[in-house]
């Protein structure tokens, strides 16, 4: 499991009480200061060692990466003005932008950005095993997955890692194998540069080759505690002030290489512990430019003539996909009958009775009554994640063939669910299963509406399939360490799970089903029929991942779709939804940079402050325009 998952999972859970900010079009009243409340300070200003979304909001705007994404998700030059890929796909060479400079918290020029600055960041991240360092091996960079201890004690020499500064303006990456999604890996924190003069403030950097683990730990602890005045900035903004528990301010850098695309001069954030409660009212009074709204508040605003045009859905990003996992290796208590569950879960007709019987739209409406049909997903790999030859991944024919109706929920069919139930009953009785089959369905109590969603599922499925067939047991899980103590420990029969993407390729959404991840444990099943399906899936994934020729992207995606269709067709998993929510904002999210991974969605470059709030009607119109442009 990736380190960042739990953080963004909680962000989704709390999305009804947190606010988001996006970019703007549709006219401007000349305002050049964007204002927002926040209720939690950053944990660190060290952007090389954090995976918290709130921590990355500052560096996303004050630092610059080798590449960037435009508003349609296309890769564009950034700190690298050009790059080349070798014919064998194993070497990538980047030319650092001429004239690129570092600036301090006063906006004063303090140095040149060099290729070594990127190597500094990578060496620290890999030797210390920093927060997002898993992205280096994900990008297949040579010897980057050996671990910090091996690099420090010399088992693997740093010189053998595939990251080198050939000169001040030439950066080279060497890969272990061709990686068709390599560029999309490059906008995580640890791929940002950090100047040698900056890191030298926190340790004897020149002699780091002799540091032991204790010295690396001490260095990292010092860097984690960096003050804003100690850092340098090379992005669209610089951090001009930061007072914990009070405020922080980002100022536009007029010398930034694309300053003409930075329309907001000042980003002002004010601390308020009650931000989630107060921001909506302050937005109505014109005191802030963005506010998060719960679904209850959004519904109330929709029924009020004064506020009905002042809010919109948040832009749904395909950064996290939610799906239901059946547990093939139950470790829950005997009272929930794990052995009986094993018999049931390994029966395909039983799984399909749940798969086709679950009213997913109804379940989503528990938390988001107004937007359920937009949030539902019929594939694990979501809509608007990747496309090739103008075809969005979920729109491929293999998925259309799996649909049993034409509605937004392509799989819900009560009659079909009952047919599978009848088949399952006969087969399960023959194998010695007893009825009703107990289905342990846990939830995390701190997650808004999760308990109500589980209660809905319990009633809906039991009413449809009968309490003589299934007994869904809704159980509150722990508030702390829910993922490790429930999902990771296998203490569930059925569970809503989620996974976040790392890069622009369907391979990333195959990760939760791999034999090294603790989702569903399908690879641990000893049932011959289940094992045959699992083996078929792994072979299909391997076949898809072997297609690395970049001219065959559509073929690669189609092959991954064939693999994912195996999971859906055999009801190994149940695709569910994306995270949603509502906001009041004077920014148009479709102007901002687009990528469901890395830092792009946190950037303000390209956005303008509008003269009126984004309405739901305008949001839908802009969404349609964006999707049409993206499909081209």
Describe this structure in words.
There is one protein chain. With 632 residues, this protein is of the alpha+beta class. The chain has a domain at 320-513 and 563-577: Dipeptide-binding Protein, domain 3 (Roll). The strands form 8 sheets. The protein has a 4-stranded mixed β-sheet. A hairpin with a 5-residue loop joins strand 4 (80-85) and strand 5 (91-96). The two termini are 35 Å apart. Residues 1-28 have low confidence and may be disordered.
Helix content: 25-40%
Strand content: 15-25%
Which topology of the domain at 320-513 and 563-577 does CATH recognise? Dipeptide-binding Protein, domain 3
Tally of contiguous helical segments: 21
Whole-Å distance between the termini?
35 Å
Largest sheet: 4 strands, mixed
Spatial order of the strands forming the largest sheet: 1-12-11-10
| CATH architecture classification of the domain at 320-513 and 563-577 | Roll
The total count of strands amounts to: 22
How confident is the prediction overall: mean pLDDT?
Answer: 94
Short description:
The chain is α+β, with helices and mostly antiparallel strands. It has 21 helices and 22 strands.
List the helices and strands and how they pair.
Blueprint: H1 5-13, E1 33-38, H2 53-56, H3 59-62, E2 67-69, E3 75-77, E4 80-85, E5 91-96, E6 101-103, E7 109-112, H4 115-128, H5 135-138, H6 148-153, E8 163-167, E9 170-174, H7 196-199, H8 213-224, E10 237-243, E11 247-252, E12 266-271, H9 275-284, E13 290-293, H10 295-302, E14 312-313, E15 320-326, H11 338-345, H12 348-357, H13 360-365, H14 372-375, E16 387-388, E17 391-392, H15 397-400, H16 414-430, E18 437-443, H17 450-465, E19 470-476, H18 482-487, E20 494-500, H19 528-545, H20 553-569, E21 573-577, E22 582-585, H21 616-631
Parallel strand pairs: 1-12, 18-19
Antiparallel strand pairs: 2-3, 4-5, 5-9, 6-7, 8-9, 10-11, 11-12, 13-22, 14-22, 15-20, 15-21, 16-17
Helix pairs in contact: 12-16, 19-20
